[in-house]
Amino acid sequence: MNRNWTAFNITSVVFGFAFLYIPILLLIIYSFNESKLVTVWAGFSTKWYAAAFANQALVDAAWVTFQVAFISASIATVLGTMAAMALVRYTRFNGRFLFSGMIYAPLVMPEVITGLSLLLLFVAIGLDRGMLTVILAHITFSMCFVAVVVQSRLSTMDASLEEAALDLGATPTRAFFSVTLPLILPAVLAGWMLAFTLSLDDLVIAQFNSGPGATTLPMKIFSQVRLGVTPEINAVCTILVAIVTTGVVIASISMKRQEIARQRAQQLAAQA
Amino acid sequence: MSGVFKAVMGRAIIWLPYLWLLIFFLAPFFLVAKLSVSQTAIAQPPYLPVLTMGEGLSGWWADFKTFAFDNYAFLATDSLYWKGYLSSLQIAFISTLLTLVIGYPLAYGMARAPRTMRPLLLMLVILPFWTSFLIRVYAWIGILKKEGLLNQFLLWLGLISEPLTVLNTDVAVYIGIVYSYLPFMVLPLYANLERQDGTLLEAASDLGCNRFSAFWQITWPLSRPGVIAGCFLVFIPAVGEFVIPSLLGGSSTLMIGRILFDEFFLNRDWPISSAVAVLLLLILIVPIMLFQRSEARAREMAKGVGP
Predict the structure, then answer these.
(1) What is the DSSP-derived secondary structure letter of residue A129?
(2) Domain presence at residue B214
(3) Cα nearest neighbour of A80 on chain B
(4) CB contact under 8 A, A3 and B12
């Protein structure tokens, strides 16, 4: 669908992106503001970054958040990839309808419901709220996002490659690790990144399921933001945005490279 | 023996995630439903137990008769709650329409961009989706508040003589929802529009159709699946939204997600918040099922048509 890119098309794209990006850019610019008044520019300064790093409570919360995000994203990637394999490779099994329902529902489920229901589960089984419960909660919703990302890749993958490996005597596990996984790896990595950032970002579910000593960065930011906008929080937010942006850009460039290499290999194989 | 073991392990890719979701996603809903019919108590946890195990079916029946449906009766009598539900649905509905109105031209423009530019544009839509939701909402506080950047800008332009009050109003909530959920609308729309066959439009114009009516007769009907998916992805979570109304909304902004949160954390009334959650889920179950059906259908289509 590429006839001509009209002035109307260009304008709507420009306005759309301006709307998406201006607020974030302003936030970043004002994190370098000398003044304590967030909206009055008083010269360039990095003092709020220094202040943020000197704030022990913020640093602690950041450390908790990164641990939670790393562990939950890793486990969610394994479970989500399994779920995607199950959905694509086994088109009929008992309870498949319920299974796919449980994969899609968390994508749109309001967070207050997920948060409250998980909390009641942890109270019912007598698990004290803390970092572990936040990790379990984050695995649960992010594995569904991983499953959806990996599933879309798997369903466009040529299943005959895996079948060939099985015919040649590979065990299902071996076939998965040496044939399927390398082919879907970009999607698996993208799934991990998505799970990581979802966990990094989550406020509501963490608020319900966290306990003393396990305050996450979003919880900390939220409680401070309620008291007003501060340049220190702008600085913290800028750091987070920078980390995520760098990660996403690197991941997408490396995925692109892999994709090109894969296509080249396929072309060579076709010629041979 | 080892054959059985292998079969069980081979199916582990099904039962392991299945079991996880049953325990951590499905089972908790029954706990919410159960708690919604129990009494509030000053205890830890703050409610009286119902449906305790160990007394068998007869015990359950006896329990059933003691179910406190008064939580639901309370929700029906106190206007805060039903007004909250109605206003959440209204705010979510209007924001979804606004997101569509802004997102459609954007997705359309992206889909018609030169082929080499499209990956970059797609990446630019996905990027804010990865950056923190909380941060993106927070960014608007500095813009919308009375001495904020929007008012400074408008005053400087001379468009207004007095600063506008936008923050802590419903308008700010609409802006926040549209802004936060725009990528959710644009992505399915773009995926749909990008795949559309350009020759259909050429055929239409050869047959004397002008651009405008070609759009309404071809592009728009073909993009319906994308529109539907995008609208569900915005509407359903927006109904239960908590962060946006509590940061950008005012004290008069009623949204049920916020009511539930306050009921739980401020009033420590677990049974009432459970009842609020159950009703919210009942309201959303139809859109959620429709969303799942449209997703499943889209997947079947992709499988059938794909390479």
Answers:
(1) P
(2) yes
(3) B17
(4) no
- Rounded to the nearest angstrom, the minimum Cα separation between B111 and chain A is 7
Per the CB < 8 A criterion, the answer to whether B193 and B219 are in contact is yes
Min Cα separation B58/chain A (Å): 22
Which of A91-95, B32-36, B151-155, B286-290 is least confident?
A91-95
CA distances from B154 to A272, B157, B264 (A): 66, 5, 40
Distance of CA A233 to the CA centre of its chain: 22
In a domain, A11, yes or no: yes
The pLDDT value recorded for residue B46 is: 62
Residue A1 placed within a domain: no
In a domain, B13, yes or no: no
Measured between beta carbons, the chain A residues lying within 8 angstroms of B108 are 9, 12
Q: Is residue B11 part of a domain?
A: no
- Inter-chain CB pairs, A–B, below 8 Å: 276
Domain annotation covers residue A244:
yes
pLDDT of residue A146: 94
* Same-domain check for residues A123 and A194: yes
Which residues of chain A neighbour B125 with C-beta distances below 8 Å?
Answer: 20
Structural domain that includes position B236: 86-253
pLDDT of B127 reads 83
Q: Which residue in chain B has the smallest CA separation from A220?
A: B134
Q: Would an 8 Å CB–CB cutoff place A178 in contact with chain B? A: no
- What's the number of domains chain A is made of? 2
* pLDDT tens readout for residues A30-51: 888 887 776 677 778 888 888 8
Question: What are the angstrom distances between the C-alpha of B201 and each of A17, B54, B113, B198, B215?
Answer: 27, 68, 16, 5, 8
The most confident of the ranges A170-179, B88-97, B152-161 is B88-97
The answer on A111 and A31 residing in a single domain is no
Between CA B246 and CA B266 the distance in angstroms is 14
- As a whole number of Å, the CA-based R_g of chain A is 23
If pLDDT is split at 50, 70 and 90, which confidence band does A3 have? low
Q: Nearest-CA residue of chain B relative to A195?
A: B130
Which residue range is the domain that position A14 belongs to? 7-45
